[in-house]
């Protein structure tokens, strides 16, 4: 009786061992059939962070066109100096000069001259506050990115024109782009507003200006 139990126990043990071997073999076959894990080969591109000058001052010049109300559209040149208080705010001092044309009244009347040649020169001086509303980058192709900013600007100043100095309010917008860490290019649109009376009637003149310029950080 004991021998039969021993034979039965050994038989069960052999069956269990055989079953485990079959399971292990099936697992190894399944693992062998799985495709090998492929590590992705991603080409890493070299990234050069933009170099931004840490100086807060910029100085430069500009040239463009100014439409002086009743006196035509005339070339204008000027200089600007700016100090960046923060990344957003900056103050700017600017001066510009243009020679105006004759008015339509002067051309039609023949001999009537409202202004002398010196009085036709318009010179303005402004102190303005600007805010960089959309700082970012401008892209040229796929590889060249330049720091840029769209800004709003406005302030007060004085305009010397028609034999008198006139209190002036100016406001506008501009676009600044930095090809290098020390050079900035500007595209600006401004409106210079002052009161004038040449024909016996007071009026508020809007004098639109657009110009291209450059500044150097130092």
Fold and architecture overview:
It is a single chain. The chain is α+β, with helices and mostly antiparallel strands and 218 residues long. The protein has one domain: Beta Barrel (Porin). The chain is 17% helix and 53% strand. The protein contains two helices and eight strands, in the order H-E-E-E-H-E-E-E-E-E. It has helices at 2-33, 104-109; strands at 57-67, 73-84, 89-99, 121-140, 144-161, 164-178, 183-196, 203-217. An eight-stranded antiparallel beta barrel has the order 1-2-3-4-5-6-7-8. The chain is elongated, with a radius of gyration of 39 Å.
Write the layout of secondary structure elements.
Blueprint: H1 2-33, E1 57-67, E2 73-84, E3 89-99, H2 104-109, E4 121-140, E5 144-161, E6 164-178, E7 183-196, E8 203-217
Antiparallel strand pairs: 1-2, 1-8, 2-3, 3-4, 4-5, 5-6, 6-7, 7-8
């Amino acid at each position: 009786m004991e021998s039969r139990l021993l034979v039965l126990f050994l038989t069960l043990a052999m069956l269990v061992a055989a079953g485990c071997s079959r399971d292990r073999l099936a697992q190894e076959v399944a693992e062998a059939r799985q495709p090998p894990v492929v590590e992705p080969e991603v080409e890493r591109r070299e990234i050069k962070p933009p170099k931004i000058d840490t100086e807060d001052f910029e100085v430069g010049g500009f040239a463009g066109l100014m439409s002086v109300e009743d006196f035509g559209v005339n070339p204008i040149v000027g200089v600007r100096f700016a100090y960046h208080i923060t990344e957003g705010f900056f103050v700017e001092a600017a001066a510009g000069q243009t020679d105006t044309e004759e008015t339509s009244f002067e051309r039609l009347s023949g001999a009537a001259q409202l202004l002398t040649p010196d009085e036709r020169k318009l010179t303005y001086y402004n102190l303005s506050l600007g805010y960089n509303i959309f700082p970012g980058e401008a892209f040229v192709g796929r590889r060249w990115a330049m720091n840029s900013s769209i800004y709003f600007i406005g302030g007060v100043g004085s305009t010397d024109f028609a034999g008198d100095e006139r209190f002036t309010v100016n406001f506008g917008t501009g676009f600044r782009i930095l090809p290098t860490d020390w050079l900035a290019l500007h595209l600006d649109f401004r409106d210079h507003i002052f009161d004038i009376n040449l024909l016996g009637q007071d009026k508020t003149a809007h004098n639109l200006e657009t110009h291209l310029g450059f500044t150097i950080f130092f």
